[in-house]
């Protein structure tokens, strides 16, 4: 079963810039043994302007690896090296009208080859810091290595924690067993055991607990950080109520009734979670939800 | 048959038109519950009895009550393994192989977490087992040996009848996942020491959602599903009567075409294989070509990747499958190719062609014609390839691997 965009198929059937560039002065070679992709990127850089005037690729890989390589070379031709370094995996995927989640790593390979080629041109040594493990969350393409590291770095204890930090398990939830296994393994290394009953964000190490007043003040301060962003779009947000881990906000101005409100709320929640160092859930008060439902009706 | 050339019969097969005709009445007028005493149930009950007989004949089982209908090959596998450990709680070891289907491997992985010791027999570069190693592992601690009859990716056959005899002499239960063999090679279970065998309907031109477990009379058994008295209490749940009748018909047809499989289908497979190998350089057959299923060939095309090959074949209407990482959606290359130590530049380019008795010589000619240009097109893009040969050793492409 293949779920590729027409653009991906186009670039696969008739790839652009296939083959090595003659008298290239920048070469990047990267690959991932486990997933069976390898890419050789050759660039011709004009030394006076540091501009990429030609780019060519040779790829060992699947349909989307070849299409991503083709897209990458199209994107970076004519760019300065500094510009090219800002090209993200998402840019490559967007150029192809999207890639299936399990194929996002193909675009990662393209970006790494580019970094390697530019390092090669500048006489620097490129360090590959990208490690790939078995794919656990298929909704958001999160692999085991990423989950393991995030659990270690942030002392995570529950599946909900892992979803909050990595998005893994936040979709269809069928990978929760896999996430629990990773938690069990990492916690065992620290001499602890995984407790399926644990509440997310609860950390056993003692932490100075905020009084209710301090906590609300901190939430207000964190909302102040975001306010300029909302006001730029003629919107705003108002703190209505704090009840344990539930924080009720009212969206005002252009934010009220905005189609993107859910995304905005998600962003605010993330900011509050990070700032407070605990898991909280941001909700709209009931009246707000009812008003929105009425508007949709 | 629908348009296109279907060479992926180890994945699933077309339901034979005669099988469809046989099962349809059981989706319409023959709707009765076979457990019912009245005429509606009675007819269905008789049809199931006939189906059981048809399966028994194909397997060469001694008694028809040795056949238990299940929902699929995976259910048969789980039933066999879990029954063996539940009925022998003092035995805490299982012997299996590294190249089994996930229906076996995943259950074993889970049992390992629950404290069982799993012995995985390794294979050599041609996918063969070390029988001395196997013999040494057999002991009173082993609850079950589970070894597939034929490998689904390469078609390589394991000597399961000998292995069953060895297990039997050591007093150990023996199970085989035979989903790829049934209907392709003649077997006669009553002359073997095999205690349990799994088969799947959709691999032999019956529909999906039906399978069977052969359970030798007298072997201690614990059901996976408990409930009603269906299948003599060994697999509760109202029978999937239409599909069971279909499986019976498919088994009858398979028994009649065993000779055809061994001669004509095999000849088509050999023609395809020779046609490709003689035109394409740097490719080879994986597994053990001298000892394999008659309808399967697995060819590794070096320096290119399997998903890309399949994608281009699919554009021409040709269906096959690959052991590459990208086709699994799991980012892991095939465990069978890894176990045989196939170099990764070849493992990722392995393509399995699995034929059926419905393929024609014309179709095979078209595939022989289609493959070489596809391989050439992808090699042109490959960093491991230059002109008409792999890149020279000295300047070999050696990327920094993550």
What is the CATH architecture assignment of the largest domain in chain B? 3-Layer(aba) Sandwich
Count of helix runs of chain B:
12
CATH classification, class level of the largest domain in chain A: Alpha Beta
The appropriate CATH architecture of the largest domain in chain A is Alpha-Beta Complex
Main β-sheet, spatial strand arrangement of chain A: 1-2-3
Shape of chain B: globular
Looking at the structure, the CATH topology of the largest domain in chain B is Aspartate Aminotransferase, domain 2
Overall tally of structural domains of chain A:
3
Describe this structure in a few short sentences.
The complex is a heterodimer of chains A (297) and B (402). By secondary structure, chain A is an alpha+beta fold.
Structural features, described:
The complex is a heterodimer of chains A (297) and B (402). Chain A folds into three domains: 6-121, Alpha-Beta Complex (Sufe protein. Chain: A); 135-189, BFD-like [2Fe-2S]-binding domain (Arc Repressor Mutant, subunit A), CATH 1.10.10.1100; 212-296, 2-Layer Sandwich (GMP Synthetase, Chain A, domain 3). Helix content of chain A is 45%, strand content 18%. Chain A is built from eleven helices and eight strands. In chain A, a hairpin with a 2-residue loop joins β6 (235-243) and β7. The mean pLDDT of chain A is 85. Chain B is 39% helix and 15% strand. Classes of the chains: A alpha+beta (297), B alpha/beta (402). Chain A binds chain B through residues 2, 12-13, 15, 18-19, 29-40, 57-66, 102-103, 105, 116, 126, 128, 130-132, 134-135, 138, 143, and chain B through 303-308, 311, 314-315, 324-327, 329-333, 344-345, 347-348, 380-384, 397-402.
């Amino acid at each position: 079963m293949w779920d590729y965009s027409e653009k991906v198929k186009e670039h696969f059937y008739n790839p652009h810039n296939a083959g090595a560039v003659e008298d290239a002065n920048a070469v990047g070679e990267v690959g991932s043994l486990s997933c069976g992709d390898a890419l050789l990127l050759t660039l011709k850089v004009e030394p006076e302007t540091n501009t990429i005037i030609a780019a060519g690729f040779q790829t060992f890989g699947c349909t989307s690896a070849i299409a991503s390589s083709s897209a990458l070379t199209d994107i970076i031709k004519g760019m300065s090296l500094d510009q090219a370094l800002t090209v993200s995996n998402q840019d490559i995927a967007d150029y192809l009208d999207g890639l299936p989640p399990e194929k996002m790593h193909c675009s990662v390979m393209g970006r790494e080859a580019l970094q390697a080629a530019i390092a090669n041109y500048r006489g620097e040594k490129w360090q590959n810091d990208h490690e790939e493990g078995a794919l656990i969350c298929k909704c958001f393409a999160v692999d085991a290595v990423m989950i393991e590291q995030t659990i270690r770095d942030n002392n995570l204890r529950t599946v909900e924690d892992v979803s909050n930090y990595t998005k893994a398990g936040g979709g269809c939830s069928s990978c929760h067993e896999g996430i629990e296994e990773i938690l069990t393994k990492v916690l065992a290394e620290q001499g602890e055991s995984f407790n399926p009953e644990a509440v997310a964000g609860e950390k056993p190490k003692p932490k100075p607990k905020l009084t209710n007043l301090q906590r609300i003040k901190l939430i207000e301060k964190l909302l102040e950080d975001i306010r300029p962003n909302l006001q730029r779009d003629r919107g705003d947000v108002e703190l209505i109520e704090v009840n344990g881990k539930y924080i009720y906000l009212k969206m005002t101005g252009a934010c009220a009734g905005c189609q993107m409100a859910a995304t905005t709320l998600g962003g605010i929640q993330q900011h509050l979670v990070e700032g407070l160092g605990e898991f909280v859930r941001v909700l709209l008060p009931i009246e707000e939800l009812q008003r929105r439902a009425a508007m949709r009706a | 048959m629908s348009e296109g050339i279907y060479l992926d019969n180890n994945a699933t097969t077309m339901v034979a038109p005669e099988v469809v005709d046989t099962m349809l009445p059981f989706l319409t007028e023959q709707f009765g519950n076979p457990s019912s005493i009245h005429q509606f149930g009675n007819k269905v009950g008789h049809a199931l009895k006939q189906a059981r007989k048809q399966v028994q004949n194909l397997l060469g089982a001694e008694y028809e009550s040795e056949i238990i209908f299940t929902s699929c090959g995976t259910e048969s596998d789980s039933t066999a393994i879990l029954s063996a450990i539940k009925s022998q709680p003092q035995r805490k070891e299982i012997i299996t192989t590294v190249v089994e289907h996930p229906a076996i491997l995943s259950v074993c992985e889970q049992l390992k977490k629950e404290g069982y010791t799993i012995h995985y027999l390794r294979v050599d570069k041609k996918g063969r087992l070390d029988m001395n190693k196997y013999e040494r592992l057999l002991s009173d601690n082993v609850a079950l040996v589970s070894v597939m009859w034929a490998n689904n990716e390469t078609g390589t056959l394991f000597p399961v009848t000998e292995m069953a005899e060895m297990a039997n002499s050591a007093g150990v239960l023996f199970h085989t996942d035979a989903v790829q063999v049934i209907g392709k090679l003649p077997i006669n279970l009553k002359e073997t020491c095999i205690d349990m065998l799994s088969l799947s309907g959709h691999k032999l031109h019956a529909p999906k959602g039906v399978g069977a477990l052969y359970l030798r009379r007298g072997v201690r058994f614990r059901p996976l599903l408990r409930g009603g008295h269906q299948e003599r209490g060994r697999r509760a749940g109202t029978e999937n009567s239409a599909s069971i009748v279909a499986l019976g018909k498919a088994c009858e047809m398979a028994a009649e075409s065993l000779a055809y499989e061994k001669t004509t289908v095999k000849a088509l497979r050999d023609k395809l294989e020779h046609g490709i190998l003689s035109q394409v350089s740097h490719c080879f057959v994986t597994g053990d070509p001298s000892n394999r299923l008659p309808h399967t060939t697995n060819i590794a095309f070096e320096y290119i990747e399997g998903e890309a090959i399949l994608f281009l074949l699919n554009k021409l209407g040709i269906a096959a499958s690959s052991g590459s990482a990208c086709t699994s959606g799991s980012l892991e290359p095939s465990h069978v190719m890894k176990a045989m130590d196939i170099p990764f530049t070849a493992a990722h380019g392995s393509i399995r062609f699995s034929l059926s008795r419905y393929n024609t010589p014309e179709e095979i000619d078209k595939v022989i014609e289609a493959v070489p240009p596809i391989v050439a097109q992808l090699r042109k893009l490959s960093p491991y390839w230059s002109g008409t040969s792999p890149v020279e050793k000295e300047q070999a492409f050696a990327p920094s691997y993550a």
